[in-house]
């Protein structure tokens, strides 16, 4: 190691003499930047440097990216000749310390005494570690230093972005020209529209009931998945006798048996899923829960959930009553009160959280069994055939739901009017010992909304698809409604949630009775916060970041030039799209690429959400996918196998991301004004999956291109999607 010698500013070595002679040296300082690069992962060994500026102390280099370490410092003018050496030290300890091979390095008057050679370290195992070394030195005046530090802080440093308050309100809208956002975006937003992938959920023209479960007991093929709608003879069950016998239970479909066997033989191996609980299995030999891959559709797989949902699952498995492990949400309400819409929305939310949930619509069973064109007479309470037929299809649907629960299904949403006690008693009897029932009653006192719903129904419901005369359809439906009104009995029994005037757009209220448990509590919370006021939600990734350009994941880099252009185009777009929506808000993550993307947008409040930060890639943060494949092949393979559940070491999985996004979803549901969400690929995949009702296993693979806006329109008829591509 060098002597620690340092000369006074005397002109230094030959190499730097000219520079020193030509410059006025007064007050100038040497700005030194040292970098070491090694592609082999040696994260436990931290490169340090020890030099003549302070020979007793080794300074650690900081990790700049996965393979690069860096240290910059300023040396006072009296240190013109510096000699130094690199060391490797374990994290959090001084031993063993490996000093680089060969002589000390010298920096004389700002120039390196020799060509930068590799730094070689012989480590314990006898292995030699090689680091590439980059040394840069500049003479700078204190003024230059201060100025460049300021510029660095203002323009590039994350701290500068973080200097923007978490919540900021810039209420002075400016025109595109003034805010620099006039980057050639034409006024005609339609010009930027690109086709959206079509999903069952994003077409407002699909009647929600059509997307519900296929009546398995009415359709050939045991799972009801057959496209054939051939009708089968149906035997009406006597509800009081159903499920009393053990073992095989006769189904209502002649010649078939529903799989309602008792699984005693599997005791200790198959453990039912709990309410609020995704699938779990307790191994027969131990009390340890284990799991297999998601998406196989088999029993005994681990939950498609993380965090609170998984914790509740375990608690329910260990402690819950068997019948409480399955939950039926039984809708109650007069026709045209938004039951099917509410049921569909709740199904979407629970599925997204990882609860195995299905929506059973009795109307679908009725249409299949008795045809779609029943007149209002069919629904009269004093029509015994009609009553029997309606009870029959309700019992069929309910039993299909129980069969599915027995196979492992967790939450059934049972969608029918169920508008009198007699019917509800029948369902409670069917459910005895099989599942817990919560009634969900939708009440609407606003005649205008009811009228609107009725009209929508005539336009959309398959019940009126063959009625060419709209007015005749309207009159018939109003008769049907009157028939129901005559015998309607509001819920007052059991566990229930009443949603009163929640569709009016003015708040409404929720009444609950006898509700307890994790999942029921969560359902109430969701229902309290949702409403049907139409408003757009705009989802977009940040503008291209510097790490995107380098193909590195994670990190917190600023945006590239293309990213900046997008930020301006986005500002222009938002200004035009939401010009009449002053209550709209802009949500970003806390990472600078989203904050910088939002920065040209003015006139709207901006809110930073930690929950919107990109998936945490843990030890792989900052790597390229190639580097992960090369340096951490096991991680690469595990992620490839199960991208949804794979959790980066010291990072997150997609399921973790979904868990942390729940408050964001609740707030998006609660907001009545438009929201622009500027976030990241993985996070937007998870958010988009909620709105588009995409299955969890697809989430990590959803396409989420840069520089594209996905507009989600939420309203009474469901969710609609439109995409704008602002840049090629
Ligand atoms: O590459 C951009 C990025 O946002 C990364 O920061 C993040 O790790 C990644 O996308 C998420 O996508 P995937 O789950 O497909 O790796």
From TrEMBL:
<dbReference type="InterPro" id="IPR002044">
    <property type="entry name" value="CBM20"/>
</dbReference>
<dbReference type="InterPro" id="IPR001345">
    <property type="entry name" value="PG/BPGM_mutase_AS"/>
</dbReference>
<feature type="region of interest" description="Disordered">
    <location>
        <begin position="257"/>
        <end position="276"/>
    </location>
</feature>
<dbReference type="InterPro" id="IPR013784">
    <property type="entry name" value="Carb-bd-like_fold"/>
</dbReference>
<keyword id="KW-0067">ATP-binding</keyword>
<dbReference type="GO" id="GO:0006003">
    <property type="term" value="P:fructose 2,6-bisphosphate metabolic process"/>
</dbReference>
<dbReference type="GO" id="GO:0003873">
    <property type="term" value="F:6-phosphofructo-2-kinase activity"/>
</dbReference>
<dbReference type="GO" id="GO:0004331">
    <property type="term" value="F:fructose-2,6-bisphosphate 2-phosphatase activity"/>
</dbReference>
<dbReference type="GO" id="GO:0005524">
    <property type="term" value="F:ATP binding"/>
</dbReference>
<dbReference type="InterPro" id="IPR013079">
    <property type="entry name" value="6Phosfructo_kin"/>
</dbReference>
<dbReference type="GO" id="GO:0005829">
    <property type="term" value="C:cytosol"/>
</dbReference>
<dbReference type="InterPro" id="IPR013078">
    <property type="entry name" value="His_Pase_superF_clade-1"/>
</dbReference>
<dbReference type="InterPro" id="IPR027417">
    <property type="entry name" value="P-loop_NTPase"/>
</dbReference>
<feature type="region of interest" description="Disordered">
    <location>
        <begin position="1"/>
        <end position="26"/>
    </location>
</feature>
<protein>
    <recommendedName>
        <fullName>CBM20 domain-containing protein</fullName>
    </recommendedName>
</protein>
<dbReference type="InterPro" id="IPR003094">
    <property type="entry name" value="6Pfruct_kin"/>
</dbReference>
<dbReference type="Pfam" id="PF00300">
    <property type="entry name" value="His_Phos_1"/>
</dbReference>
<keyword id="KW-0547">Nucleotide-binding</keyword>
<dbReference type="GO" id="GO:0006000">
    <property type="term" value="P:fructose metabolic process"/>
</dbReference>
<feature type="domain" description="CBM20">
    <location>
        <begin position="24"/>
        <end position="125"/>
    </location>
</feature>
<dbReference type="Pfam" id="PF01591">
    <property type="entry name" value="6PF2K"/>
</dbReference>
<feature type="compositionally biased region" description="Basic and acidic residues">
    <location>
        <begin position="261"/>
        <end position="272"/>
    </location>
</feature>
<feature type="compositionally biased region" description="Basic and acidic residues">
    <location>
        <begin position="7"/>
        <end position="26"/>
    </location>
</feature>
<dbReference type="InterPro" id="IPR029033">
    <property type="entry name" value="His_PPase_superfam"/>
</dbReference>
<dbReference type="GO" id="GO:2001070">
    <property type="term" value="F:starch binding"/>
</dbReference>
